[in-house]
């Protein structure tokens, strides 16, 4: 096995190309099957910078999930849109459009993150989780205010 640190990309700003002699990494008593192959390969690690992009997500593209049984959730934040900055590789970020980004206020996840077993009626501030590829980082935190109430009451 070729060790991971054989091609160290620390500080690299351009592609890293290296010639590796596989014979150096063969276990004892193992040899290459093709005697004419000298064991040298050219390995390339492609380096690409992280890019950022500003997006505007419409409030209507954000939904609430995990509302406890017998309760209703209402978004009380009055913003019509939310501005976020995302970052990632060009191939992932360039395809994003404002209208294609959606978010969710996941009450179950929020309860788990905060060690809560149940929610009572009241006002809460819940972070938005945007539905993006795991290769994309959202650099902006967005929190939205909601009101949780019993389904059979007006309070």
Describe the structure in your own words.
The protein has 155 residues and is mainly β. The protein is 7% helix and 38% strand. The protein has two helices and eleven strands; from the N terminus they run ββββββαβαββββ. It has helices spanning 90-93, 107-113; strands at residues 16-21, 40-45, 51-58, 62-65, 71-75, 81-88, 103-106, 122-127, 129-130, 137-138, 143-150. The chain has a three-stranded antiparallel β-sheet with strand order 3-6-10. It has a three-stranded mixed β-sheet with strand order 4-7-9. A three-stranded antiparallel β-sheet has the order 5-11-8, with no helix packed on it. The model has no long low-confidence stretch (mean pLDDT 92).
Span of the ends, CA to CA: 64 Å
What is the alpha-carbon Rg in Å? Answer: 25 Å
Major β-sheet, in short?
Answer: 3 strands, antiparallel
What is the H/E order? Answer: EEEEEEHEHEEEE
In spatial order, strands of the major sheet run 3-6-10
What does the overall shape look like?
elongated
Question: If you average the pLDDT, what whole number results?
Answer: 92
Query: How much beta, percentage-wise?
Result: 35-45%
Count of DSSP H/I helices: 2
Give the helix level as a range of percent.
under 10%
Unreliable parts: none
